[in-house]
Structures are given as C-alpha cells and as structure tokens.
C-alpha cells in the first residue's frame, strides 16, 4: 500500500505538534494544592488536540477520498473578516471588558456566517457570555478582563 501525503496529513501533524507544545508549557505551570491549577485546562485541551491530530493524520493516510473542496471568494472573505474581528476583539477586550465586548463578537460572528434572526442572536450571545463568565470567573476563579475608564 502506498502512503500519500496530503493537506490533511500536514494539518494533522501541525495539530499534533501544536498540542505537544501546549502540553509541555502546561506541564511547567505551578500546581495548586486544592482544586484545578492553571495548567489543568490547557493539559486537557492539548491532549484533545493531539488525539484529533492523530485521527486526522490516520484518516489522511488510509482513507482515500477523491473529493476536492472548492471555496468561493465570499467564504474566504468571511474567514478573513472573522480573523480581523477576532484580532480587534483581542485588542479591545482589555479596555472594554469581557462582559461588554463578547456579545458583540458573537453577534458579528453569527451574522457573518448566515444567522439572520437578530432577536434570537442577541439572546444567545448574551446568555452564552453570561454562562462563560459565570463558569470561568465564578467557579474557576479565572480573572477575566474588566471594563475600566482609567
């Protein structure tokens, strides 16, 4: 059997290497005497990335599909807009705060990818933001960026 190197193989190997990088950095974080430490969640995510990378690499070697994805210019444009919005979010979140800015990011993302029901999108983005805030700030005690005038 002849093994083929495809885009999926390269992306799978890249995901594995990225997962290993995150895992090695997470293992160097300090342990907490009680509860979850700062490295526990990145360890779990990195193990998931490594497993997904192995699955993608395995599939690319042994599953032969003759499909070719053709992406339209509008879908590539949407992804580039999402990258720009995400970078803008990362820059602005330290000034505006997680609670105030995250619903707008979610609304923009939902609208960008075709969800046009505005009332439902507002409710979903606000509830999801509050849920994430409660889990990370309330339960895990992870400080999230807060709004500050100064």
TrEMBL record:
Protein name: Tripartite tricarboxylate transporter TctB family protein
Lineage: Bacteria, Pseudomonadati, Dictyoglomota, Dictyoglomia, Dictyoglomales
Keyword Acyltransferase: no
Ranges where the DUF1468 domain occurs: 11-145
Transmembrane segments: 7-24, 44-63, 75-92, 121-140
InterPro entries in alphabetical order: DUF1468
One Pfam family it belongs to: TctB
Domain of life: Bacteria
Key words, A-Z: Membrane, Transmembrane, Transmembrane helix
